[in-house]
């Protein structure tokens, strides 16, 4: 109930691929030369030995067939280029193939007879042993039901292996008939010759077309190279023109910046002169204030001196003289202020108002001085009692007038001092603004100069580089790049031609209902 399996070890259906087969092998290795303990173990060992023999035989046949086919292919490819010797080669190959086919047929018949004898011997031995163990197996069916299942599985594998073996034998027989039949070989040879001739004609035409295409591509590349060179020259000319325009613009900017710097320096000088004038006015104003304070101190001292005197008439005259002196001093102060103020054409509203106030104050002081002169003349005609009454009356008037003059002079001086301070602060702010603008202009001038220097250095470096690389060297470099691009294009075209050639070969091989391409491989059978 076991059949020999011709599958390769380790594949589906092979005894070696099962766990029981591995156990049997291990048992055989351990008990080499000993008699099997059961029919199952014996059949497994026998099946393993048959599989090993079939594997060695299959490897030998594959190796021999491979070298025979390679030898035939070498002879065909070595002689197919020689058109005159094709017929002699075909006749020699014909004889070699006939002899090999005859030997192969005899060897196959012997092998087939050996295989049949071995199978008959195997079937006899299996049947004999089955008959011996049938009673015991039948008695063990009820005790060991898995044995029945294994037998069923073995029967299924047997039928499956037999079907696959029959299919394989049919396929091998058909392939052997196709390869050994003379008419089939003759048709394949004629179709291959026709294919080679047609391919040769097509390849010649294709080569001519490719040569024309190559010439057109070469001319096109040369034209593109000339156009590229002209374009580069035009770009260089435009860049040079742009550089010239940029430098001219920078020079104009520098000239404008220089003019602005000069203007700012002139403004700065003018402001410095104004500052000096303001400082002088401040000093003069301080001197005037100090003079008035000295006058005030002197008047107070004289008043103190007159307080102790009882001669009111003399005190009146002395007081009138002192007041006239003070009025003269005040007039001198006002005149100094008027001399320090600019002309009417150069005044603004505030300065004009200050000048008008100073003129009015000068007029008031002159009138007051004239009034004191008239009073001084009147004092000579007074008696002592009248002088005392007049002194007491004039004392209050003089105090009132003195306070009024002090107030007016203080207002005039404070207004002028405030005007000077405003002018000083505005001059300081204008000076700060001019300093900032001057610094900005200097910074812009430096940046523009740096840009011009950098552009000049870059231009000199480019000119130096162009001088170091001669025109011929650039031309050779362009030619080398063009040659490299052409070689790359040729390689791409060659790959394209090779791909087209392969496609044409496949199409021509498949062309025709009776044409079959020569197959130099061999599909290995999975035993």
UniProtKB/TrEMBL annotation:
Classification via InterPro entries: CFAP53/TCHP
Species the sequence originates in: Meganyctiphanes norvegica
Biased composition (Basic and acidic residues): 430-462, 475-495
Protein's GO biological process: apoptotic process
Protein name: Trichoplein keratin filament-binding protein
Region (Disordered): 419-495
Keywords assigned: Coiled coil, Cytoplasm, Cytoskeleton
Keyword presence, Coiled coil: yes
UniProt keyword Cell membrane, yes or no: no
UniProt feature coiled coil, ranges: 211-305
Signal sequence, start to end: none
Main location: cytoplasm
One cellular-component annotation, GO: keratin filament
Composition bias type Low complexity, residue spans: 419-429
Subcellular localization: Cytoplasm, Cytoskeleton
């Amino acid at each position: 109930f076991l059949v020999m399996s011709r599958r390769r070890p380790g594949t589906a259906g092979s005894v070696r691929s099962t766990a029981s087969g591995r156990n049997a092998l291990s048992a055989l290795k351990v008990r080499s030369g000993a008699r099997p303990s059961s029919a199952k173990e014996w059949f497994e060992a026998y099946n393993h030995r048959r599989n090993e023999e079939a594997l060695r035989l299959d490897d030998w046949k594959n190796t021999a067939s491979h070298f025979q086919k390679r030898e035939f292919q070498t002879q065909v490819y070595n002689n197919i280029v020689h058109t005159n010797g094709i017929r002699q080669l075909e006749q020699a190959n014909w004889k070699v193939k006939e002899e090999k086919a005859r030997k192969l047929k005899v060897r196959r018949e012997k092998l087939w007879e050996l295989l049949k004898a071995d199978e008959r011997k195997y079937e006899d031995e299996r049947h004999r042993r089955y008959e011996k163990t049938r009673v015991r197996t039948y008695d063990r069916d009820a005790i060991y039901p898995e044995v029945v299942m294994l037998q069923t599985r073995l029967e299924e594998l047997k039928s499956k292996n037999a079907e696959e073996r029959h299919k394989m034998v049919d396929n091998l027989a058909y392939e052997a008939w196709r390869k050994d039949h003379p008419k089939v070989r003759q048709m394949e040879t004629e179709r291959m010759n026709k294919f080679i001739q047609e391919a040769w004609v097509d390849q010649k035409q294709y080569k001519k077309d490719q040569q024309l295409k190559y010439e057109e591509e070469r001319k096109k590349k040369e034209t593109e190279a000339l156009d590229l060179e002209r374009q580069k020259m035009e770009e260089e000319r435009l860049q040079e023109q742009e550089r010239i325009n940029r430098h001219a613009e920078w020079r104009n900017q520098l000239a404008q910046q220089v003019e602005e710097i000069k203007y700012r320096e002139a403004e700065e000088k003018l402001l410095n002169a104004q500052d000096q004038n303001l400082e002088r006015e401040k000093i003069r104003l301080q001197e005037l204030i100090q003079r008035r304070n000295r006058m005030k101190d002197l008047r107070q001292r004289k008043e103190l001196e007159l307080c102790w005197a009882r001669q009111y008439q003399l005190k009146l005259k002395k007081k009138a003289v002192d007041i006239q002196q003070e009025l003269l001093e005040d007039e001198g102060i006002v005149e100094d202020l008027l001399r320090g103020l600019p002309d009417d054409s150069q005044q603004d509203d505030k300065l004009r108002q200050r000048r008008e106030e100073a003129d009015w104050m000068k007029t008031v002081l002159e009138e007051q001085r004239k009034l004191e002169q008239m009073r001084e003349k009147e004092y000579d005609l007074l008696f002592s009692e009248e002088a005392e009454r007049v002194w007491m009356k004039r004392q209050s008037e003089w105090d009132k007038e003195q306070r009024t003059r002090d107030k007016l002079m203080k207002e005039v001086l404070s207004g002028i001092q405030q005007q000077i301070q405003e002018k000083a602060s505005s001059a300081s702010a204008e000076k700060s603004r001019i300093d900032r603008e001057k610094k900005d202009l200097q910074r812009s001038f430096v940046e523009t100069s740096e840009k011009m220097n950098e552009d000049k250095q870059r231009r000199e470096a480019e000119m130096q580089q162009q001088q170091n690389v001669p025109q011929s060297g650039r031309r050779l470099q362009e030619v080398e790049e063009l040659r490299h691009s052409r070689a790359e294009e040729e390689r791409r075209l060659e790959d394209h031609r090779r791909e087209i050639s392969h496609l044409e070969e496949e199409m021509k091989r498949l062309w025709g209902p009776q044409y079959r391409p020569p197959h130099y491989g061999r599909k290995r059978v999975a035993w």
